[in-house]
Design a protein that fits this description.
146 residues; alpha/beta; two-stranded parallel sheet; 5 helices
Length: 146
């Protein structure tokens, strides 16, 4: 298992937690739109509450990089803010947008992540589940390569 983050301090915290847990995880410093891995390296890629921090351009660049490092037959799973399922969920998400910025969160609230995954080359892109939360709609997405 591998973990990636662009912040060295976050990586140190993750390494410390991993050491206490006894798990074996390799942590690497890097950016999602310039992954330091060879083509086809991973069977599965998981992202949680990350994409809403990226600009639209960097979202697409990151999905393209993830597609590159995912092997044929592999899959991508993303948990992030999605299109609100009703007015209450839209209102709840407004607080996240105030904190994280409207430019980066707008594509999420517009439900654009599946479209971006497809543009990056993923197939069978779908929303597995929409979960209402106190902060808006959490969407779980799945996509496959090849």
């Amino acid at each position: 298992m591998h973990g990636l983050d662009g912040d060295p301090a976050i990586l140190e915290r993750a390494r410390a937690k991993t050491a206490r847990s006894g798990l074996e995880i390799v942590y690497t410093e890097g950016m999602s739109y310039d992954l330091p891995y060879p083509d086809g390296r991973f069977d599965r890629v998981l992202s949680s509450l990350f994409f809403h921090h990226l600009t639209l351009e960097d979202k697409l660049r990151s999905f393209r990089e993830i597609h590159r490092v995912t092997r044929n037959g592999g899959a991508l799973y993303v948990a992030d803010w999605g299109a609100p399922q009703n007015g209450l969920m839209r209102l709840a998400f407004f607080g996240i947008q105030l904190l994280d910025g409207f430019e980066t969160t707008r594509p999420n609230v517009q439900g654009k992540l599946p479209e971006l995954m497809q543009q990056a080359g993923f197939e069978r892109v779908r929303v597995i589940r929409n979960i209402p939360t106190l902060f808006g709609t959490m969407a779980i997405y799945a996509a496959h390569k090849g």
